[in-house]
Each structure stands twice: as structure tokens, then as C-alpha cells.
Write a structure and sequence with these properties.
By secondary structure, the chain is of the alpha+beta class. The strands form nine sheets. The protein has a five-stranded antiparallel sheet. Strands 5-33-32-31 form a four-stranded antiparallel sheet, with no helix packed on it. A hairpin with a 5-residue loop joins strand 15 and strand 16. Helix 1 runs antiparallel to helix 2 and helix 1 runs parallel beside helix 3. The longest helix is centred in the N-terminal third of the chain and has 30 residues.
């Protein structure tokens, strides 16, 4: 029922009859209304259509209700009763308005009947219920035909689009918020009305649509008849089946344990044993807050590390106002500072003042302060953990020297007789004779065991190199003196050996050679009647002579010979040829491979390895030193040692790399010679510092194991002469003995 208005025209007039009749009608209306409310109470308790009912299980599928809800109706009835009572108490009007009041009461009765019908669950929906259809023809086309055009474009226009006829759809006048609120309060169906902004109209949801939305909000199926827990229907009838679905035999994997499961279990077991998987351990809780300016370490407080700035260097004696005289540079030193680069010049030059008052202001104080602040700002600072390690633990674990015996350690014998520095020595292959060459121009043959000088040749010029023939049957000696190479008969063998040597050393007169010959005007073979041998005349000074292992070939080295600096001579045929390779740089030493047809040429910077048969270079060894002075090849042929002018000894493993395997910095001055022992794992080096070092150098047959290098002994005893020290060193071919030749005209034998 509509509430009675309290303003002007609806108030009853103040007359007796009208008031009595109105009271009777109102009392009758109240009785009928209370009766209907009592009848509607059961429907209110079981109502499932109210929009204010919570989504509990008892409400079922019809939790949301339409405008027929009994709760809202009872509320409206109570409000009407209170309004009627107000009308009775404040009724003032004439009797002429009684008819109007009767009409109002009748209107209230009609409204009560309307609500009473709604309380019994009957729907008063104005729209017809249409059955659902999947056909797109049943869908109602939208009234607005603007498509996907945003409605913001029509914000300032008087229309929102166009209909199917192309006419503008005018905007409806919008109510204010207060008017729309009051209208929603009076309208019981406002809770299910939706504003369609696209078509500018209000759409009211039907009862079925509200139920559908309610079910979707609860997470249920949209259709109320759908059963999500329907019983399973077994479509295959097993009763009376004679055969299974598949008659295939059971696979083998059903009867054996799984290989992959066992691997997984094994992996987990190993992880547990290693501690990667731990049980019953709670993670440590890290503190959320920490003191930023705390002096403790970052590990203790679990935060950022505090790194103090490095302290500035304190001033020294040179920055004093009155420094000592040794701190004050001279004018020449100050002028020399100007020739240096700016970064190499000293930043502060000391000056002397009589007192503190005379010291002027430092002109670079602001610049230095700015540079320090800039360094503190830009340079990153990190904590570096210092590990206190015993220096002895860093030394490699080497075997004891007692286990590496025998090796030469004591001077046993001295060979005296030369009047000048002994430059070169050589030991005969049997180990019985020793040859030496001196700067006094003499060559001497010594008996090793007794120290007796057997034979002397005076060649008139300083001897550069002496070398015994490696064959014990042919005890010949090659001597390099100036531009000549002498091959001498030492007469140290038997009579039969002497006859063989005389046949080898016989040279027939040479015929005139063509100018096209590669060796023309390079070497001249001739008989030396004075000394009893062969004389090879070269066009440049010869410094090195090396024999091939078969004793028939020997090589000579002329550092200033350019492309013909290295020559190979064949003694049996009395022929000379140069190596078919271009030597880059100045050669300083040569050597033959002990077992293969390979030739080594050492220049000042590197060592080049050539194959004489294939006539090509096969390797280049880069020593990385200032200047190479000597070279020696291991008896196995896979390793080599190189001595340098800067006191370094480089060991090369040619199967491993072209770089040195080890670099030994033992000597303080230039290395003059290096040598390997033929049978013992020993090698030695001598230097101008009057010392000779003996090392243990074991080369294993297993290629996976690196050579073992152990320093054994430092041999001293020679004195300095003409600024030189030990000039040469050679091992005995059979005993662990070492011979050294010094600039003090002595040859010493060191034994174990």
C-alpha cells in the first residue's frame, strides 16, 4: 500500500462525522492487514526469494528472490501501520474529504492484496517468459548500431548512437543521485535492475536469471537439475564374459624391479650421505634488522660490510721544513726530472727553510685533497680475506737428496797447465780422455784418472770449441780456431784404430769448383801437415762444432755467416753443404738429435727444430728470455734445456708445449753452458758467477707424468778472471762426475 502523505490535500478535515468514519475504516483496515501478516509469516520463514538471505545450504538453489519477498513486504506493512497511526493522531481536516480518505483506504486494500499475492510466491513479472533457444534468430538485436565505437566519443553529444533506421538515439534525462536513491528506496524491484549504458535503458532481471546468477556466484552448475555427483555407469557388461579385453601376455617389466627406480633411490642415498639432503633441520632465521654502523664483521651481523677508507700516507723526512742534505736534490737532478713523463716525476721536491714561519703555503693542497676524495668516491673497496699460510707449506714436496744419490758434490781433482782461461772442454766417449781448449791458443789432452797431460797442440789463436768424435773406435778431435776447423788425430787408440784414422784424415787435392755450387768459396778442405789432420778453412769465424751420433757428420756455426752461418760437413766424402733452411736471427748454438734425423738451431730469441729428411721446420720453441747462450738435448730426445744471458735455465718438454715447462732462476749472472748426463738423470749449468748447479731431472716413460726436477748441489771453487767465471761444464759419459772449466785456467773434476 502507498503511504499516506502528510501534506495539505491528503489530510482529513476536522469534522466529527468524517473523523469517526475514518477511524472505523482505518480500524477495519488494520485488522485485515494484521490478519494477512499472520498468514504470511510461515511463507516469510521459508522464503527463498529474498535478496537479503545469505548463501547457506538450507536456502537451496533459490537464495535470491524477486520483488515478491515476504520480508520486504512485512517491513513495508509495518511502515504503513506506523503511518496510519500517525494519520489518526494528527488527522485534521473537514468532513468533505472523507470520500477522498475512503479512496485512499481502498487503494491500501488493493496494495495489500497485491502484496498478499506476492507473499504466496506468485510472480508479478511484466515480461512474458520465453523458452530458451540456441538459434541466433531468437536473439534480440541491440537498439544501438554504433558497433565497437567507444561511448566516450558521444560524451558531449545529445545522442548516444543510431538505431536501425539511422535515427539518432536521444539521451534520456538522468536523475540526480538523491532522486535515484529515493526512487530505489520506494521501488522493491530496484535491486535487480541493471543500467544498459550502450542502449541507455534499464533492464530488469527475471526470477530465473537471478537464480542463475546466484548459482554461479556459489560456484555451482547453472542448471539446477545438473547432478555433479551422478553415479558412474559401467557401460561394459562383465557378466558372462569369457575372454578379457586384451589377450596379450603380461610384459616382463611386471615381474622385475624397475631399473630407473633403483637409480633414483641410489642417487637419493648418495645425496643423503653427502649431506645434500638433511632431515629435521629448521632453517635459520635471519635477523630482519642490523646496525649499519656496527664495527662487527658482516658474517656476525648478517648485513653490509663496513669498509673504512684507507688512511693517507704520513709525511716523511723529505717533507720536513728542514730535511737532511741527502733528501735535497741537486739542480742537475731537478733538471733531469723535467725530462721524465709527468706521471713519473716526483710530486714533491724537498726544500730547506730556516724556520716554520718561512714555509710557504702548499700550492697543490687543494688538488691533492680533491684527488683523494675522488679516489674514495670512485674506487671500489672490498674486504680481502688474508690467509695466514706457512711459507714452508707452499714449497713443493720433493724427494730427499739422499734418495737421489749419486751426484757430484766434491772437488776430487784439478787439471793445471793452461796459461789462459779455459774456454771449452770435451770428454771422450769411453771416459778415459779429456780435451780442453784455452784462450792461450793451446789444446791439451788429459788422462782423467791421473790428471796427466798427454798431448799439446799450439794452434796460435784462441780456441773456441773442442769436440770428441762420439764413436769410441775413431778417437778424433774437432777444434774450432778462428776461421779454421781442425780435425786432429789424438793417437789415443790402438794401432788398428790409428790406421783407420789416417785413412779418414787423408784429403786429396780438390778440383776447381764451379761458381754455381752452393758451397763454392765457403769451405776449403785441406791437409794439415803441421798438426797431422784436416783443416777446413771457412770464410767467417767459427764458434761451435758439433758431431753427429754416427761420427761421420759434423756441423759448424758461423754467427756472422748470414744465410750460410750453419754448415754440415761429411768426413767420409770430404763434402760440405749448408742446411736447406733459412735461419732467422743470429744463431748462437746448434745440436743434433741423439736418435733421429732432427737438427736444432738456437738463435738469440728462440730454438728452431728442423727435420733433415723432410727438409722442413717441425717446431719452434719460444724461451721468453733476453738472449739464449747455450742448448743441450736430453738423451731421450723429447726434452731440452736452454741457458740464457739473464741467468735463467728453461726446461722444454717438446711433447707438451712450445713454451718452457719449468724456468729455473738459479744463477745471478750469465749462463755459459748447460749439459745432460748420458745415463744418469742429471743435468748441470754453469755461470759467470763462479758456480755450477747440479739438478736431478727424471724423465718418465709415462707421457701422463711430468718430468721431476730437483736442485741437488751448488759447486763452487773457481775464481773470477777477466770478469768471467765458469766457462764450460761436461758430464763424464759413464760416471756421475762433472768437469768444469774456469777463467782461472783450471779444470776441476767433481765426484760423488
Amino acid at each position: 500500500m502507498k503511504p499516506l502523505k502528510e501534506n495539505g490535500s491528503d489530510k482529513p478535515k476536522k469534522n466529527g462525522e468524517g473523523s469517526k468514519q475514518l477511524q472505523k475504516l482505518i480500524a477495519k483496515n488494520m485488522e485485515e492487514t494484521l490478519k494477512r501478516i499472520e498468514e504470511a509469516e510461515p511463507a516469510t520463514e521459508s522464503s527463498e526469494d529474498s535478496p537479503f538471505v545469505s548463501g547457506s545450504e538450507d536456502t537451496g538453489d533459490e537464495a535470491l528472490s524477486d520483488d515478491d519477498g515476504s520480508i520486504s513486504e512485512s517491513g513495508s506493512e509495518q511502515s504503513k501501520l506506523s503511518q496510519d497511526e500517525d494519520v489518526i493522531q494528527s488527522s485534521e481536516g473537514d468532513s468533505d474529504d472523507a470520500d477522498n480518505d475512503g479512496d485512499l483506504v481502498s487503494e491500501g486494500e488493493d496494495d495489500d492484496n497485491y502484496h498478499a499475492e506476492d507473499s504466496h510466491g506468485e510472480s508479478d513479472d511484466s515480461r512474458e517468459v520465453v523458452e530458451e533457444s540456441d538459434s541466433s534468430e531468437d536473439e534480440v538485436a541491440p537498439r544501438n548500431t554504433v558497433g565497437d565505437v567507444p561511448l566516450e566519443w558521444y560524451k558531449d553529444e545529445g545522442h548516444i548512437g543510431y538505431d536501425l533506421a539511422g535515427k539518432k538515439i536521444k539521451k534520456k534525462e538522468r536523475q540526480s543521485k538523491l532522486d535515484s536513491f529515493l526512487a530505489n528506496v520506494d521501488d522493491s524491484r530496484s535491486w535487480r535492475k541493471i543500467y544498459d549504458q550502450y542502449n541507455d535503458e534499464e533492464v530488469e532481471l527475471t526470477k530465473d536469471e537471478t537464480k542463475l546468477i546466484g548459482r554461479l556466484l556459489k560456484g555451482k552448475a547453472p542448471h539446477p537439475d545438473f547432478d555433479p555427483y551422478a553415479p558412474y555407469v559401467d557401460w561394459f557388461a562383465w557378466d558372462g564374459a569369457k575372454h578379457p579385453l586384451s589377450n596379450a601376455p603380461e610384459p616382463k617389466r611386471r615381474f622385475i624391479p624397475s631399473k630407473w627406480e633403483s637409480k633414483t633411490v641410489l642417487r637419493l642415498v648418495r645425496a643423503i650421505r653427502k649431506g645434500l639432503i638433511k632431515f629435521d633441520e629448521k632453517p635459520k632465521e635471519k635477523p630482519r634488522f642490523f646496525d649499519l654502523w656496527d664495527d662487527s664483521t658482516s658474517a656476525e651481523r648478517q648485513g653490509l660490510a663496513y669498509i673504512p677508507a684507507p688512511k693517507a700516507k704520513l709525511p716523511g723526512h723529505d717533507e720536513s721544513y728542514n730535511p737532511s742534505a741527502e733528501y735535497i736534490p741537486t739542480q742537475e737532478e731537478i733538471n733531469a726530472y723535467q725530462l721524465l713523463f709527468e706521471e713519473d716525476r716526483p710530486k714533491f721536491i724537498p726544500k730547506q727553510f730556516a724556520n716554520m714561519r718561512s714555509v710557504p703555503a702548499y700550492d697543490k693542497s687543494v688538488q691533492e685533497l680533491f684527488d683523494r676524495h675522488l679516489d674514495l668516491y670512485l674506487c671500489p673497496r672490498v674486504h680481502k680475506k688474508r690467509i695466514n699460510i706457512d711459507p714452508e707449506s707452499l714449497k713443493p714436496k720433493l724427494p730427499s737428496r739422499r734418495d737421489l744419490k749419486p751426484y757430484p758434490s766434491t772437488c776430487y781433482l784439478e787439471y793445471k797447465g793452461h796459461k789462459g782461461p779455459v774456454i771449452t772442454i770435451s770428454v771422450e766417449s769411453t771416459g778415459q780422455w779429456l780435451a780442453s781448449g784455452s784462450k792461450d791458443g793451446t789444446v791439451r789432452i788429459w788422462e782423467i784418472e791421473t790428471g796427466r797431460c798427454v798431448q799439446i797442440w799450439d794452434l796460435g789463436e784462441p780456441v773456441e770449441q773442442v769436440s770428441w768424435n762420439p764413436k769410441p773406435e775413431v778417437p778424433m778431435l774437432a777444434v774450432a780456431v778462428g776461421h779454421d776447423v781442425f780435425i786432429l788425430n789424438t793417437k789415443c787408440g790402438s794401432d788398428e784404430q790409428q790406421k783407420t784414422i789416417e785413412e779418414i784424415l787423408h784429403v786429396e787435392p780438390q778440383k776447381a769448383e764451379d761458381d754455381s755450387d752452393l758451397t763454392a768459396n765457403v769451405v776449403t778442405w785441406g791437409q794439415d801437415e803441421k798438426h797431422g789432420g784436416i783443416r777446413l778453412k771457412h770464410f767467417k769465424s767459427v764458434t761451435k762444432v758439433e758431431w753427429h751420433r754416427n761420427g761421420d757428420y759434423l756441423s759448424t756455426l758461423m754467427p756472422s755467416g748470414e744465410s750460410r752461418s750453419v754448415l754440415i760437413h761429411q768426413l767420409s766424402k770430404k763434402q760440405t753443404q749448408r742446411i736447406p733452411f733459412k735461419t732467422k736471427g743470429i744463431p748462437v748454438a746448434t745440436s743434433f738429435h741423439p736418435t733421429r734425423s732432427i737438427f736444432f738451431t738456437a738463435t738469440k730469441q728462440d730454438v728452431r727444430v728442423y727435420d733433415l729428411i723432410k727438409q722442413k721446420r717441425i717446431k719452434k720453441l719460444d724461451a721468453g728470455v733476453r738472449e739464449i747462450s747455450s742448448i743441450a738435448i736430453h738423451p731421450g730426445g723429447d726434452n731440452a734445456i736452454v741457458g740464457s744471458r739473464d741467468g735463467k735455465l728453461c726446461w722444454f718438454d717438446m711433447d707438451l708445449s712450445s713454451k718452457p715447462y719449468k724456468v729455473l732462476r738459479a744463477h745471478k749472472k750469465d749462463l755459459t753452458a748447460v749439459a745432460y748426463h748420458r745415463t744418469y738423470p742429471l743435468f748441470a749449468s754453469c755461470s759467470d758467477d763462479n758456480t755450477a748447479y747440479v739438478f736431478h731431472g727424471m724423465v718418465y716413460s709415462d707421457l701422463n707424468e711430468n718430468p721431476l726436477i730437483v736442485p741437488l748441489q751448488i759447486l763452487r771453487g773457481h775464481s773470477t778472471g777477466d770478469g768471467r767465471g765458469v766457462m764450460d761444464c761436461k758430464f763424464h759419459p759413464r760416471q756421475p762426475w762433472l768437469f768444469t772449466a774456469g777463467s782461472d785456467s783450471l779444470i776441476k773434476l767433481y765426484c760423488h
